[in-house]
Amino acid sequence: MLSQLGQPRHRVWGGALGLAALLALMLSACGGGAGTTGPAQGTPVANANATSTVTCGQFQQSQMHLVSPNELTIASDTTYAPAEFNDATNPTLFDGYDMDLAREIARRLCLGPNIVQVGFSSIIPNISGPALGQQPWDLSISSFTINASRTKSVDMIPYLQAGESTLVQTGNPQNIKTFADFCGKPVSAQNGTIELAELQAANGQNISPDSQGVAQQPVCKSHQIQILSFDSEEDVINQVLTGRAVASYQDQPVTDYYISLNPGKVDHGFTTTGSVAPEGIVVRKDNAYLENALRTVMRSMQADGTYNRILKAWAATDLAYPTPAS
Q1: Sequence-ordered list of residues with C-beta below 8 angstroms from that of 44, at least 6 positions apart, any chain
Q2: DSSP 86-118
Q3: Which of 120, 209, 219, 315 could, after both became Cys, cross-link 192 (CB 3.0–4.6 A)?
Q4: Within a 13 Å sphere around the CA of 209, how many CA atoms are in the beta-carbon half?
Q5: Lowest mean pLDDT, pick from 32-41, 129-138, 249-258, 308-317
Q6: Beta strand pairing status for 94-95 and 84-86?
Q7: Does 188 score more than 90 pLDDT?
Q8: Could you give the CA distance from residue 281 to residue 43 in angstroms, rounded to a whole number?
Q9: How many angstroms from the chain centroid is the CA of residue 20?
Q10: 234 Cβ neighbours under 8 A, 6+ residues apart
Q11: Average pLDDT of every residue of the chain
Q12: Domain boundaries, the chain
């Protein structure tokens, strides 16, 4: 869910998960889930993955304008593995490096993490639209690329960085090597993403709210891409697996993850040159106390090593943002 900035990414998963990475995933998943009850103020919060002790009282709930007392309500489109996805054994639980970061943020705020599964394109309008205190969620962690269009309506706290790439069938039978190779062909992407906006821009369109600032040239204006868009990233990937699309377009970690899940079926097409960009935690512009609290705990997570350790558990250390919450 990116924009055209930065340098190409390296793979973080490879063709198949190694034993060490798999064990790390299993350990990380053990902490998964959507908590529903937060601790009383002044009560230390335990976490098996924590590297520091938290003593509550530093932050005042009454000033955070929370949706529910003692909870941090977090919206996420949990179809975007390995960042956020439903646990295979219990769909009410959520796994991924974004989810582990979200739970640790809530722990340091002395709140229970209430992760809510939400369609990606609805998140920013529903966080920013209602009056303060009437929004359905306190924040969102869902692989949102920071761009000028989004920051018109919400604030975004940088916490990761990632690039864009394409997924194709094994052997790349359609020889998809550049954006121009999409012309006239079916290509899939998730609704509300920068990738979808770039496909639209390649067709000469400018109809997506996120299309402002997209640098993609209209290389397919006279022979347009057959864009297949879906709310779920799983549906996006399935178009390639079933042969309905010649490629899908998404963040590099997502491409790598689905290659690891489908060995011998899918492969890399191309990585968008200069596509690395920061991703941000989405918060309201008029809830400064909560935003400052989030920035404080993110900086503490980096300082004590918890931030890097969570990413390492998902073999995703190269996604680390140099100065989270800057």
Answers
A1: 53, 54, 55, 56
A2: E-SS-TTSEESHHHHHHHHHHHHTT-EEEEEE-
A3: 120
A4: 11
A5: 32-41
A6: antiparallel
A7: yes
A8: 26
A9: 23
A10: 79
A11: 84
A12: 19-162+277-319, 164-271
Query: HSE of 281 in the Cβ direction (CA atoms, 13 Å)?
Result: 27
Per-residue pLDDT, 215: 75
SS3 162: strand
Quote the CA–CA distance of 137 and 75 in Å, as a whole number. Answer: 6
pLDDT tens by residue, 270-316: 988 777 899 999 999 999 999 999 999 999 999 999 999 999 999 89
d(CA 167, CA 271): 9
Domain 19-162+277-319: top CATH class: alpha beta
> Is the CB of residue 215 less than 8 Å from the CB of residue 124?
no
Pull the structure tokens for residue 75.
Answer: 């919206």
Q: Give CA–CA dist 82/319, Å, rounded.
A: 12
CB-side neighbour CA atoms (13 Å) of 291? 15
**230: amino acid identity, one letter:** F
Q: If DSSP codes are grouped into helix, strand and coil, which group holds residue 200?
A: helix
Contact predicate 148/189, CB 8 Å: no
